[in-house]
């Protein structure tokens, strides 16, 4: 055993020998020499818990200056590439979904290409914060990068839809670490919140850029090569990012425990119940109204199990020594509200990112490349608003302003999307998308800063992972909800067509293959396009009050922490 790890049976320095005390004996306060900790020992179990707590406290990460000059530039270039790839794979399949599902003749499974990634991404966002405390930030980052690259190779080589979905899940496991660990790295390198905001902006810019360029790149690959390059392109970029971080991230994060001790600290039960809860939430959202009726036994049982597992998770995490998802953080008002706002933003924005390009393709009849190009104003707005907020934060000293303004702007954008129909002009499309980007860029980064600023430093990594986890929950639920809304609205609208036209739709397999819509007879094509337009309208009507509720929540966020002290 490592010499720095004290055996529970051996006495702390300067204290009495505890083995001589019966387990039923109660000792008054024991305070070893040179220790700031005092505690009361009731039995052997308490002793073991206190020893573990000492190990956690004694090996807390030490903040040291980040690299300087060209080394800093190359380090953050590598981190940017990792964030970009992790975020890119959320959206790059958006414009490629019709072609992928058509190639495998599996339109009904199309949503799982996105949901499998988001499910794994969501689950492991909550784990990397605690794992970085246990195993170290750098080892976990390189592990995540390696897993992501393996998943990308498997997706590109997939020969069946099932194989693609499995490797998309593996990608998600790695992608979760690439994004959340970057935020944790920055928080350990920079103590000043304003300086931290400037560097965390890189991660959010990567997310914003990927959110818009993803559909564009997906369209280019589908039209000019093959959708498989949506995944193969990750390999050279990912390797470069891996090498940059491996070389230039030298901030020490030392642990004295051996591997067995580290593994003992993992909250396996919490991990299991998180996975079970997320699965039982997303499966019925994907299946409801399509594979199974909403009132079917399968859907009802899964939703009931979800609530049961969540209740069990709360019970388990409240009693865990090192909970992977600390319930106490939710008692912090600012953390709870920031997470709620961030989760709703993720739900709404991801839904728009997936289905606005489909509106362009199906209703406006543009190519996959053009549908991606029409999202370019979003990236312009996101880059501008994210950069502006990071600069203004040091002057205004109030992240609440940006969170409130961002949710208000995003609410306006989604509300304007309700106006989308067959006759919407190009100028209106571009302006509405620009407004969406302006709102998006103001929310995520400032929610992360709010959580970090209002949390104890020892919990900062877990809090950063938590806000990313809640955002990812929103992303995954958003895709599932949007798919359910679109599928149910579309089925309802198509059912209004005559029986003869419905027979033609079955012949052309329109529901399973959207590419066949424009091969329909002109009169029927117009009716089907209108049915799709009305379905998209229903979707945006559902999403608008969701982000509007997030806007209302921002008024209850108080300014606390270091920024409040500088006013």
Please supply descriptive tags for the structure shown above.
3 domains, Growth Hormone, Chain: A, MFS_dom, MFS general substrate transporter, 567 residues, transmembrane, 21 helices, mainly alpha, 0% strand, membrane, MFS_trans_sf
What do you see in this structure?
This is MFS general substrate transporter. GO terms for molecular function: transmembrane transporter activity. Residues 75-562 form the Major facilitator superfamily (MFS) profile domain. The chain crosses the membrane at residues 73-97, 109-128, 140-167, 173-190, 202-220, 226-245, 266-287, 293-315, 335-360, 372-394, 401-420, 426-449, 461-486, 538-557. It comes from Linnemannia elongata AG-77. The protein has 21 helices and no strands. The protein is mostly helical. It has 3 domains: 18-58, no CATH class; 69-267 and 321-492 and 537-565, Up-down Bundle (Growth Hormone, Chain: A), CATH 1.20.1250; 268-320. It is globular and about 75 Å long. The chain starts with 43 loop residues before the first helix and ends with a helix.
């Amino acid at each position: 055993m490592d010499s720095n790890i004290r055996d529970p049976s051996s006495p702390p320095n300067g204290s009495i020998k505890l083995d001589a005390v019966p387990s039923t004996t109660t000792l008054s306060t024991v305070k070893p020499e040179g220790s700031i900790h005092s505690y009361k020992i009731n039995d052997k179990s308490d002793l073991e818990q206190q020893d573990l707590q000492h190990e956690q406290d004694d090996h807390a990460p030490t903040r040291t200056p980040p690299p300087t000059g060209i080394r800093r530039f190359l380090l953050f270039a590598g981190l940017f590439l990792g964030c970009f790839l992790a975020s890119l794979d959320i959206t790059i399949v958006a414009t490629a979904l019709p072609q992928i599902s058509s190639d495998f003749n599996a339109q009904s499974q199309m949503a799982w290409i996105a949901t499998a990634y988001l499910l794994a991404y969501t689950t492991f966002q909550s784990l990397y914060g605690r794992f970085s405390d246990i195993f170290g930030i750098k080892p976990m980052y390189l592990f995540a990068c390696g897993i992501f690259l393996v998943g990308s190779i498997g997706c590109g080589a997939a020969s069946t839809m099932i194989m693609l979905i499995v490797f998309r899940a593996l990608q998600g496991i790695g992608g979760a670490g690439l994004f959340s660990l970057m935020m944790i790295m920055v928080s350990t390198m920079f103590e000043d919140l304003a300086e931290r905001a400037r560097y965390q902006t890189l991660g959010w810019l990567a997310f914003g850029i990927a959110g818009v360029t993803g559909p564009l790149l997906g369209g280019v690959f589908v039209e000019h090569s093959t959708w498989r390059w949506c995944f193969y392109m990750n390999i050279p970029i990912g390797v470069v990012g891996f090498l940059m971080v491996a070389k230039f991230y030298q901030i020490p994060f030392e642990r004295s425990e051996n591997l067995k001790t580290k593994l003992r600290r993992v909250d396996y039960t919490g991990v299991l119940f998180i996975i079970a809860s997320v699965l039982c939430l997303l499966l019925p959202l994907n299946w409801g109204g399509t594979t199974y009726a909403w009132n079917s036994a399968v859907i009802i049982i899964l939703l009931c199990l979800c609530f049961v597992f969540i209740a069990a998770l709360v019970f388990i995490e409240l009693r865990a020594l090192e909970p992977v998802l600390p319930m106490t953080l939710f008692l912090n008002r600012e953390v709870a509200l920031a997470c709620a706002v961030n989760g709703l933003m993720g739900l709404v924005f991801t839904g728009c990112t997936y289905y606005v390009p489909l509106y362009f393709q199906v209703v406006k009849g543009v190519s996959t490349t053009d549908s991606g190009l029409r999202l370019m104003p979003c990236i312009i707005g996101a880059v501008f608003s994210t950069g502006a907020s990071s600069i203004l934060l040091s002057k205004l000293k109030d992240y609440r302003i940006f969170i409130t303004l961002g949710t208000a702007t995003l609410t306006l954008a989604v509300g304007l999307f309700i106006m989308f129909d067959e006759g919407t002009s190009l100028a209106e499309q571009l302006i509405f998308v620009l407004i969406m980007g302006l709102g998006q860029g103001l929310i995520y980064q400032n929610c992360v800063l709010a959580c970090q600023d209002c949390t104890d430093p020892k919990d900062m990594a877990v809090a950063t992972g938590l806000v990313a986890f809640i955002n990812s929950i929103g992303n995954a639920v958003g895709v599932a909800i949007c798919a359910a809304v679109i599928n149910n609205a579309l089925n309802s609208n198509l059912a209004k067509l005559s029986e003869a036209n419905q027979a033609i739709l079955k012949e052309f397999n329109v529901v399973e293959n959207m590419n066949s819509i424009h091969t329909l007879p002109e009169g029927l094509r117009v009716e089907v396009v209108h049915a799709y337009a009305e379905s998209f309208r229903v979707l945006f009507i559902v999403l608008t009050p969701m982000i509007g509720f997030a806007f209302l929540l921002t008024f209850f966020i108080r300014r606390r922490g270091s920024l409040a002290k500088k006013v």
